[in-house]
Amino acid sequence: GDLIMVGGTVLQFAQQREVDGDTQSQLYDLVTHDSLTGLYNRRHFETLLDQEIARSRRRGREFVVAALELDGVSGVREADGTPAAEELIKRCARLVQMELREDDIKARLDDQQLILLLPETPMSEAQPLLERLRQRLAEAEFNVSGKVLSSTFSAGAISWTTAITTRQELLQKVDTALYQARQAGRNRVVTG
After folding, report:
1. Domain range spanning residue 156?
2. What CATH number is associated with residue 79?
């Protein structure tokens, strides 16, 4: 039967008659995508990041990883409830999806944190792109259940170099840059 490998998980479809291509595609989407936003989930993002690190080592190409934390979602959750906060997250994710290039990898890491992988992109190109995205989100207003909501984001972005040896090291550096953006007052991009 057909095999689908997702991270360290292998799904095998033994009887093709019982599991058609559409069902396989739906199962693949369930294991690789976040159910709220439709973006990739953390597990699949990490798999894609490992692949990009290997490709960049072979080709000597630079790429950028940026973590975006949506500012103010907790306040919306407290004031307007979880459904409103989730709708705000979903709409922010949709805006990110529309604003970035098709080849850029977008994922949801946790409740209010998204992560981007910008392949073959030096920081000199990534920083203006992230600033435009930050500005675009800051200007956006979303009508959620009759109430106008908005959000900004804090971002930490790191350019991969061969000096960074593991995915964990890269993500730690990204997290440190994100922490610096939050500490500096939010609604900003910090690069490292």
Report:
1. 60-191
2. 3.30.70.270
Nearest residue to 178 (alpha-carbon basis) of 87, 116, 91:
116
Q: Is the pLDDT at 154 greater than 80, yes or no?
A: yes
The total number of structural domains that make up the chain: 1
**Using an 8 Å Cβ cutoff, are 106 and 45 in contact?**
no
**Domain assignment present for 14:** no
CA distance 85 to 33: 19
CA-CA distance, 135 to 128, in Å (whole number)?
10
- Taking only the tens place, the pLDDT of each residue in 107-147 is 999 999 999 999 999 999 999 999 999 999 999 999 998 99
| Number of residues assigned to the chain | 192
User: pTM for the whole thing?
Assistant: 0.86
